[in-house]
UniProtKB/TrEMBL annotation:
Bilayer topology: Multi-pass membrane protein
Keywords recorded for this protein, A-Z: Cell membrane, Membrane, Transmembrane, Transmembrane helix
One cellular-component annotation, GO: plasma membrane
Transmembrane segment boundaries: 43-65, 86-109, 115-140, 147-166, 212-230, 242-259, 271-295, 307-333
InterPro entries: DUF318, UPF0718_permease
Compartmental location: Cell membrane
Protein name: Permease
Family statement: Belongs to the UPF0718 family.
A Pfam family: ArsP_1
Amino acid sequence: MFIFDWLNSQLLKMEWLSNLVKTLVEQGFGLSIQERLGGSIHFFIYDVIKIFILLSVLIFAISYIQSFFPPERTRKILGRFNGITANTLAALLGTVTPFCSCSSIPLFIGFTSAGLPIGVTFSFLISSPLVDLASVLLLASIFNWKIAIAYVVVGLILAVIGGTVISKAKMEEYVEPFVFGNQMADVEVEELTTRARVEFAKSQVKDIVKRVWLYILIGVGIGAAIHNWIPDHIISAVLGQDKWYSVLLATVVGVPMYADIFGTLPIAEALVLKGVGIGTALAFMMAVTALSLPSMILLKKVVKTKLLAVFVGVVTVGILIIGYTFNAFGYLLV
């Protein structure tokens, strides 16, 4: 147990880095981290470096695993199953694809055009940006393993239920016709060498870091401002656990935004440190990653309004239930 706690604090939470940045701020800049400016600088430098280190390492490892599951192989695996088993498998496969919701949509088109049920592809579409393995470890590094694991479980349940509801609704007619006409060739999957897999993983790290670095900086900057400059009583007045509308407000605020989950984590961290319920913070994260306005605009190009409305409605209700449940029972996870 001692070894696990040490590894968790030093490798995931990177307490050594926090202490190093503290020394830099206090001795290098002559500022106390107990004061607003010093605390903000410490929060920003520490979180940015920690997230980029963890992100690079985790994306490399996950992408290496993902190289064994290219779209063609994933499609064949999913094609062997049906019903809730297929939805569950699609949600699980979504966890090893480190994509944002916009990046997942081309795979959604490919899977649907290849003949997979749309409910199965929607389970994948919900899970992929929401519960990838990298975000789980980052959640553990910011909060704890109980919260991270609980987040994965509820995220997968949401993906399975969302896809199942859409399957039962028989909404294939609300997918744009060109999607079904885009037939994928049934090509043999080429087996990659270890060197090729390493190169693929390195390219994924570069691509994803290039795509999300700005959102991480913005997210950490907002988190630093919330943590050190906005008084607790203001945050509590708007998003306090005693406010029945806090989860609803966090979900509504999150939808128009576009950021990767890595950019929203520092904001969620700062909100929780200010006394906001863990459910409210997670609802905000889920809304940003699963229901962002840009991804909905992209999805509207491949599905009709009724199907899009059902998708948004199911996911929104799921996020609200998850948020209020975590707020009610989150104390068990702290």
